[in-house]
Design a protein that fits this description.
By secondary structure, the protein is of the alpha+beta class. It folds into 2 domains: 97 residues, no CATH class; 120 residues, no CATH class. Helix content is 20%, strand content 36%. Strands 1-8-9-10-11-12-2-3-4-5-6-7-13 form a 13-stranded mixed β-sheet, with helices on one face. A hairpin with a 3-residue loop joins strand 2 and strand 3. It is elongated, with a radius of gyration of 20 Å. This is Lipoprotein. Keywords: Signal.
Length: 252
C-alpha cells in the first residue's frame, strides 16, 4: 500500500496515458493498472499540489438525508483553503451556512449565528471568526474536520512507490465525463476511486467511503492553478479553546 495511503487511509489517484496498452479497445473495467499507469499514480498527488490549487466542491453525507457541502478553493501547495460550508439536514430544520477557512492544524468559522451575543456575554470584542484546532483521531471527529482533512490530503510533497500500485488491488475503470472534462477512473480494493483529467493529468475527482456511511465522500477539483488564500487575522478571531462558552454557544 502506498506511503500516502498508509498515512491517511483516505486517498490515491491516476491518469490514463496514451500507449499504456498495445490495444486499449480490448481493455475491460477492473483490469489491473499497468506499470506506466503506476508511475503516474505514484506522482499524482505531488503533481496536483505542484499546480498550486483548485476550485473545490466537497460533499459528505450523514444520517438518513443530511449532507455537508464545502464550496470554495484550496491551495494544495500551501496547505490552506476557504469554503462556504452548508449543512443540509434534509428535513424541516433549516440549513446551517458558515464560512470556513482551514489549514492542516486549524479551522476558522465565520458567519456564525449568535456569535455577537456570545462574545458580548463573555465581555469579548465583536470579531467575525472563531478559531479552534482541527480535530484528529478516528472517533467523534466533526464531519467538517473530516472533509477538510480529505481535501488537504489530495496534495503531497513527494511521490509514492510505483511498485505499490502494481502489487494488486488497483484497477482501471474506464473513462467518463465530469463537469464537461473527460477523465479516466481508477479504483482500489480499499474502497476509494479517483478520476483524472485526461487533458491536464491532474486529479479531477476523488471519492471514498467513511466508516458507517453507505455513500461516498466526494471531492471535485476544477480550474487548477496557483491560489493565494489569506487566513483570518488574529485580531479578527476569538480562540475557542480559551473561550469554550463562546464555542459552545455557536456550535464549533
Amino acid at each position: 500500500m502506498p506511503r500516502r495511503l498508509l498515512a491517511t487511509a483516505l486517498v490515491l489517484p491516476t491518469v490514463l496515458l496514451a500507449g499504456c496498452t498495445d490495444d486499449p479497445a480490448a481493455r475491460q473495467p477492473g483490469d489491473p493498472v499497468t506499470a506506466e499507469e503506476a508511475e503516474v499514480l505514484a506522482g499524482l498527488l505531488a503533481d496536483t499540489a505542484e499546480s498550486g490549487g483548485a476550485d473545490l466542491v466537497a460533499t459528505a453525507p450523514f444520517g438518513e438525508d443530511g449532507l455537508l457541502t464545502l464550496t470554495g478553493e484550496v491551495d494544495l501547495a500551501g496547505g490552506t483553503g476557504r469554503a462556504r460550508a452548508v449543512t443540509a439536514y434534509g428535513g424541516e430544520q433549516p440549513d446551517d451556512v458558515r464560512t470556513v477557512f482551514f489549514t492542516a492544524d486549524t479551522v476558522w468559522f465565520g458567519d456564525l449565528a449568535g456569535l455577537p451575543a456570545a462574545l458580548s456575554a463573555e465581555g469579548l470584542p465583536d470579531v467575525p471568526f472563531v478559531r479552534r484546532p482541527l480535530a484528529t483521531g478516528s472517533e467523534e471527529v466533526p464531519l467538517t474536520d473530516v472533509l477538510v482533512r480529505v481535501v488537504l490530503n489530495l496534495g503531497a510533497t513527494g511521490t509514492d512507490d510505483a511498485a505499490a500500485f502494481t502489487a494488486g488491488g488497483h484497477t482501471w475503470e474506464g473513462q467518463r465525463s465530469i463537469d464537461g472534462q473527460l477523465a479516466t477512473v481508477y479504483a482500489s480494493d480499499a474502497g476509494w476511486s479517483v478520476a483524472v483529467d485526461d487533458g491536464s493529468g491532474l486529479l479531477l475527482q476523488y471519492a471514498t467511503p467513511l466508516p458507517g456511511q453507505e455513500e461516498d465522500v466526494t471531492v471535485t477539483l476544477a480550474d487548477h492553478g496557483p491560489r493565494t488564500i489569506a487566513l483570518p487575522e488574529e485580531d479578527q478571531t476569538v480562540d475557542a479553546v480559551a473561550h469554550p462558552a463562546v464555542a459552545a454557544a455557536v456550535g464549533v
